[in-house]
Every structure is written in C-alpha cells, then in structure tokens.
Amino acid sequence: MSTFGATTTADEALEGHDLSGKLAFITGGASGLGQETARAMAAKGAHVVIAARDQAKLDEASAAIKEGSGNEKVETILCDLASLDSVRACAKEAGERFDKIDLLINNAGVMACPLMRTADGFEMQFGTNHVGHFLLTNLLMPLVLAGTDKRIVNLSSRGHFFDEVHHDDPNYESREYEKWAAYGQSKTANIQFSVGLESRLADQGIHSYAVHPGGILTNLGRHMTDEDREWMMSRFKKSAGESDGETPSGFKTIPQGAATTCVAATASDLAGKGGVYLEDCNVSAVDDENEKSGVRSYALDPAKADELWAISEQMVGQKFAY
C-alpha cells in the first residue's frame, strides 16, 4: 500500500487483482466515483451491481461500464436512499436476484444541500448518507454473509472535520441548520458506522472500512453555490500547497478519487484490519489538530459508534443483532 498515493488511479489500485467470481454491489453507481469504481472492478472480472434512484441514468451508466470494462456482467437495481420503503424494496429484490455480495460499496451521497427532509422526515444529508445506508447494509447482510473475503466500504470525507454526530438531535429538529456542519455530521456517521460494523461482524469474517476519496468535481456538489465552490477551492489550494500539475488546486480526477475505495475493497494488507479510515490509498493516523489529513478521534470512538447504532435502529424501526 505504501507505493500508492494521491495520484493513484482505480485501475492502478486494482492491478494484479482478479475479481472473477466476486459480486460488487455499489450504491450511487450511475455516475461519478460509483460508476468509475464499478468500471474498474468490472475490468478485473467482477460481477457488478449498480444501485441508484433513476433507471434511465442506471441504464446509461451500465452501458458505459460494459463498454469501458469489456465485461457484460453489469446489472442495475433501483434504490432511493432517502426513502426507507425504497431501501427495503431494493434489499428484498436483491435477495431474490443475487446469491451473495462479496464487496458492498456504500458510495452514494448528497452534500451541502439546503435544509430538506427525506421521505421519513430525517435531515436529508444524515438520512441519505447514513440512515439509508445503515438500513440497506443491514438488510443485505444475509447476502454479504454468503460472500467470500467480505468487505464493506463506506464513503466518508475529510468533511467529517466539520462536526461530530449530535446523537441528541441528528435531524436538526431543535437546533439551527448549517449545511456544512450537517454534511460533516453525516460523514462522521459514515466512519462510526464502519467502526460499529467491524465490532459486530469481524468475527464472522466481514470487515468494514471508511474512506475519504479526496476532493473531486462530481455531481455530489450539485447543491453548491458559486460562493460554496470558491470557498472549497480555497480550502483545497491551502491544503495542497502548490499544484503538482496532476491534481490542480488539490482536486483529484474521478479515477484518482475511486482509487482509495478500490484499495479498501481489495488490498491484502488490509485483510482482517477493518474499522479504519483511509485517504490517499493508505490508512490515516488519528489527528485532532491537522486540517490537511488524518481522522478525528471522535469518529473512531467505539462508544460513540455504539450510540449511533442505537439511534439508527430507532430511526429505521428495526434492531440488528449479530
């Protein structure tokens, strides 16, 4: 893993891997990082299932993945993570169509939207980025348990620096909404969910990883204003220092952004070592001060992860014991 870094691409991260016989289930697979992750894994022989809420976009992405990988084993499934009914329907259909899931990539997300609510009344970023994935992952667990070399990868972000999870009010029902703090809370939740999954499932051979893909210009930023983009560009310029030419202004290309996900899903160095946070294709150290890299200690706190698990079960109205 030490030979990989910020400019490593998804294809480079998967070099030498044969994913034939593996089934990779990827949320948000109809565009951006999810589509590139799917293409790279399909190119290595994986049977890929991409999930999203728009069938037309899924069909378009599926065709592109097949063409880009030379692999026809690409399927689609509808799933709107902002609706628990849709999540349950997706999991039910997946159980009927597939025998197993070896690699579950929870990639989909929303960022910096105005105050909005999911179909079930959750704040949109927390509800989509965490709660929807929490329910989907747990409902897909029978398929994951049937897989081999089983890994779950949750897309987080350096945005987790912005805020912790407010377990007493995750949905902004009694506090003032701030879109970047809300995004940060949801990204911290992605890490804590990885820690919670690892503590519950490691003894069954399932390991979970959180990743920061880097700053990438994708449709994740569709809710951002010009002011937001200017602010984010200034943050990345400050973080990156002078551009190396390959990652202008600190941003990565989509193939570079998908690389850390591919490392988390396949690297032999990570076998049996879940519950960690990766960035630039390597496991990050705990750092509560550095604004450029690392993972905050609160995101990896087992007690906070257990508290998040408990409130998440309350939100979805279902307990999951392993």
TrEMBL record:
It comes from the Bacteria. GO terms for molecular function: oxidoreductase activity. Keywords: Oxidoreductase. CDD domains: retinol-DH_like_SDR_c_like. InterPro entries: NAD(P)-bd_dom_sf (IPR036291), SDR_fam (IPR002347). Coiled coil: none annotated. Belongs to the short-chain dehydrogenases/reductases (SDR) family. This is Probable oxidoreductase.
